[in-house]
Amino acid sequence: MDMNFIWLSIVSLMLMAIAIPLLMQKVKPNRWYGVRTGRTLNDEGLWYRTNCLYGITMLVAGGAFFVFSALLGNWQPGEDNQKISLVLFMLEVLIPVFFTQVRARALGRK
Length: 110
Hints:
Elements: H1 3-23, H2 38-42, H3 44-72, H4 79-109
Helix pairs in contact: 1-3, 1-4, 3-4
């Protein structure tokens, strides 16, 4: 098994674990943990809605990382497989952030 894939998998699982309390709305507004924007910090309802959305998208993206890794076989050693793992991981991190930011703007207007 490729070591880069192992490390990316560990970080993916950590990100998924961090997303669970956000999804369950257990994290109160704070400056350290969660989707912290001026709007979410000033509106408690928006904080919980936005962080719940982020938690859901992070869990889905993390699951997708593992599903695509299994389908593509990028867990096996190889230079191309390392690149695939890195791209999948970057998408796993960036897509939830982008999606949540766009959606949070819409939620904040309601």
